From TrEMBL:
<dbReference type="Pfam" id="PF03171">
    <property type="entry name" value="2OG-FeII_Oxy"/>
</dbReference>
<dbReference type="InterPro" id="IPR005123">
    <property type="entry name" value="Oxoglu/Fe-dep_dioxygenase_dom"/>
</dbReference>
<protein>
    <recommendedName>
        <fullName>Fe2OG dioxygenase domain-containing protein</fullName>
    </recommendedName>
</protein>
<dbReference type="InterPro" id="IPR026992">
    <property type="entry name" value="DIOX_N"/>
</dbReference>
<dbReference type="InterPro" id="IPR044861">
    <property type="entry name" value="IPNS-like_FE2OG_OXY"/>
</dbReference>
<dbReference type="InterPro" id="IPR027443">
    <property type="entry name" value="IPNS-like_sf"/>
</dbReference>
<dbReference type="InterPro" id="IPR050231">
    <property type="entry name" value="Iron_ascorbate_oxido_reductase"/>
</dbReference>
<dbReference type="Pfam" id="PF14226">
    <property type="entry name" value="DIOX_N"/>
</dbReference>
<keyword id="KW-0408">Iron</keyword>
<feature type="domain" description="Fe2OG dioxygenase">
    <location>
        <begin position="179"/>
        <end position="288"/>
    </location>
</feature>
<keyword id="KW-0560">Oxidoreductase</keyword>
<keyword id="KW-0479">Metal-binding</keyword>
<comment type="similarity">
    <text>Belongs to the iron/ascorbate-dependent oxidoreductase family.</text>
</comment>
Length: 371
């Protein structure tokens, strides 16, 4: 396979119903292979997630983010050792600028006592969600749990297709997955003072980044067109719009998958620009096994990708200069396991949570760049 292709100018759409058609399945796998290797972003349609599961969750979003501030504070992320809960707009920064979005993070539910003191600190990331009072948004919990279940099943099915598209056995990638997946419900308020070009961060819903918290991301753009703002960075350094398309999910590669494929399947840099219209989105982050080590991630499939994709091996994908600036905390960091790399990132991003719940590792993670 050639080492370079023309930079993508649009995002491909794959019809997953073709997987059940023996005549069309090879064409679907070829389309998927192109999306994996040359783009890093794709839409999937006819994905099998029931319409009522999607609409049930979308219906809850306006009332959820309209909750009074005291109710949002009751479920604030700083109350959770699992970094789950509500974060206000401007409390997170990306590329050095504050993100104009508020969000509530949920995950696969685990009991409070999932972690024991003899386990690594990153095992504390498993635990219970924080839920608003059921009287204020009574449909939220069943809607979130149904959506998590449906996306977990879709993710496993999709990973099987990915394996086949990359000439691997269908179950070759399942062993990398975690027992915990994460879901964000995100609200981008309308921005009336946004500059046209986004300069100075005034339109930054979320700044340029690659998804570092999961294997794959499945994004529901929950506001109808023409409301948009999501953009992906192509190999030439051009921002390509990823508009909302009803009935689809946007799927993109996370950094862990880029590591395991040795750059054959690159994670694509993306961002969200805010506009005068408020926007809702729901990203589902497919979890990576916490005890996955760098040695295992790099070695498990190295021979396969080196032999099968020699022109793409070790990331010779022509990524733009801006994209290369995005760090890979797992591969380039000093910690050996995926779980510890993730915990470090969360502690450094939410230092109040780190200081309260992770005092045993807090100083190490905050000051490890100084040693």
């Amino acid at each position: 396979m050639a080492a370079m292709t023309r930079s993508f100018t649009g995002i491909p759409t794959l019809d997953l119903s073709w997987a059940d058609d023996s005549a069309r399945r090879p064409q679907l796998l070829a389309q998927l292979r192109h999306a994996l290797v040359d783009v890093g972003f794709l839409y999937i349609s006819h994905h099998g997630v029931p319409d009522d599961v999607v609409t049930g969750l979308v219906h809850e979003l306006p009332s959820l983010f309209a909750l009074p501030s005291q109710e949002k504070e009751r479920i604030a992320l700083h109350n959770s050792a699992q970094f789950l809960g509500y974060s206000a707009a401007g409390t997170e920064t990306t590329a050095g600028q504050p993100d104009r979005r508020e969000q509530i993070e949920f995950a696969t539910e685990h009991p409070e006592d999932s972690w024991t003191p003899d386990q690594p600190a990153y095992e504390r990331l498993r635990g219970p969600n924080q839920w608003p009072d059921a009287e204020t948004v009574p449909g939220l919990r069943p809607a979130v749990e149904a959506y998590l279940d449906a996306l977990t099943a879709l993710g496993e099915r999709f990973v099987g297709l990915v394996a086949e598209a990359l000439f691997l056995p269908a179950d070759a990638l399942l062993g990398f997955l975690s027992d915990q997946h994460r879901l964000k419900l995100v609200h981008y308020p309308g921005v009336v003072d946004a500059k046209a070009d986004g300069a100075g961060g005034s339109r930054q819903g979320v700044g340029p980044h690659k998804d570092s918290s999961g294997w794959w991301t499945f994004l529901l753009q929950a506001s109808p067109p023409p409301i948009g703002g999501l953009q992906a960075l192509n190999r030439a350094g051009e921002w390509i719009n990823v508009p909302a398309v009803p009935g689809t999910f946007v799927v993109n590669i996370g950094q862990a998958f880029e590591v395991v494929t040795h750059g054959v399947c690159p994670a694509t840099t993306h961002r969200v620009l805010s506009s005068a219209d408020e926007r809702f989105s729901v990203p589902f982050f497919q979890g990576v096994r916490r005890n996955l080590t760098k040695t295992e991630a790099l070695g498990a499939l190295q021979d396969h990708f080196q032999k099968t994709f020699p022109g793409r091996f070790l990331g010779s994908n022509g990524e733009s200069a801006e994209g290369r600036q995005i760090d890979s905390p797992f591969l380039r960091g000093r910690y050996e396991t995926w779980g510890e790399s993730q915990l470090r990132t969360k502690v450094r991003s939410h230092r109040d949570v780190g200081a309260q719940f992770y005092g045993d590792v807090f100083d190490k993670y905050i000051h490890d760049e100084d040693t």
